[in-house]
Amino acid sequence: MKSLIISPMKNTIFISAIILVSCLFAGCNSQSNKLSKSVAPSQNVVVILVDTLRADHLPFYGYKKDTAPFLSSLAKKSIIFDRAFSACSYTAPAVASVFTSLYPSQHGVITGHFANIRLQKKNQTVTFDRIPEELTTLAEEMKNAGYKTYGVADNLNITTEMGFTQGFDKFSTFRYEGAPKVNETVKSWAAELNSGGKYYLYIHYMDPHEPYNERAPWFTSSTDQKERR
Questions:
Q1: How confident is the model over 204-226, as pLDDT tens digits?
Q2: Which domain range does residue 34 map to?
Q3: What's the pTM?
């Protein structure tokens, strides 16, 4: 991953990660309560992860097309890090590192949902990699700090079975249904989120990911798979 945006807006802190090759960043503080103590008591926290979105295809990194108007507007009033690195090149281990602040060798999530299924078909004694219950996740930290915790992911790797919903009051997982479905889900929680008290919201988009669906007005046809965008 090549970039990270942190922006305080009104009563909400937005953390937007630009993801490269299904990677996420490992940047949460592993020491208990340090993250929650660094956030003002009245602030909500929203983490937005965009799976496989290339940093060099964003206008605030010099790309010629205005591919991300919202992120561009956010970048103008934010702190931008251009050297943030993933703990792994696969989604499940990398997200587990985001949620636990540990390396894959420490939290034990080293394969994804479908890889686990394939392994189980060959050997029924194989169990799913999952975040161990004894580890404290970011959502649990936020919940312990008095936050309502909500999450939605459009990536089937991010499941209850693999321990990713640990600490969330409500979590929805989809399989590449697109940003409209993710946004619709978040909007359906609006009344609960705004009913009083602070909240932590995790949003995981998949739109730039394979199979690289055409998305107007930014898609440009090309015979070179690497140039499709």
A1: 999 988 888 887 777 777 666 55
A2: 3-227
A3: 0.80
